[in-house]
Amino acid sequence: MDSFMNLAKQGYEAYSQSQGGGDSDARKTGGEEYNSPHNSGQQGGQGRPQFNEDEVVQTAQNHGGGDSSLFSSALGFVHQNKSQHDEPVDEEAVQSAHQQAYHEGGAGNLDASSMGSAAALQTLKKFTSGGGGGGGSQNQLISMAMAEAGKLFDQSGGASGGNKQDAVNGAAMTVMKLLVQSKFSSMTGGGSSGGIGSLLSMASKFA
């Protein structure tokens, strides 16, 4: 019954507990215990997902989401707000926004940031149903989420608050949060593929 976002948060909480100090072993599990003190301690900096900006912008443009400056600016926004990467995603709000945008036709009633989160969730659902193509790389995931946010904004005739850039920023930040937080629950997966694999596995459980 748990959604992928809830699972991502659980993974992050387990990681946080295992990082809480040498004597904090109440909730440790084997994989996290062995991986987190040394290897995962570096996740806060260089362990962040790294994107090929040119590839991301080009892919987003190819998906018809808007001008390249929208996507470049969104990537800049994500990198400049690293403190937000570890903040839990508001699961209920994102699911509600997605329902409103994609099932009720009411995307125009959402603020731009919520619209972006809904687009990110829609993109994840496409990836898990085999519609992502290209193996589901991190670059492609964030590209398609931003493009989807741009298209949703245009199709809806705008948002209740905020502009198209806010919508694209919202999609990019939602993807980054989920990538960062899902990596913590799959430390033994190895490299970026472990993070994206874990994330898509979580998303496949989302009904």
Automatic annotation (TrEMBL):
<protein>
    <submittedName>
        <fullName>Uncharacterized protein</fullName>
    </submittedName>
</protein>
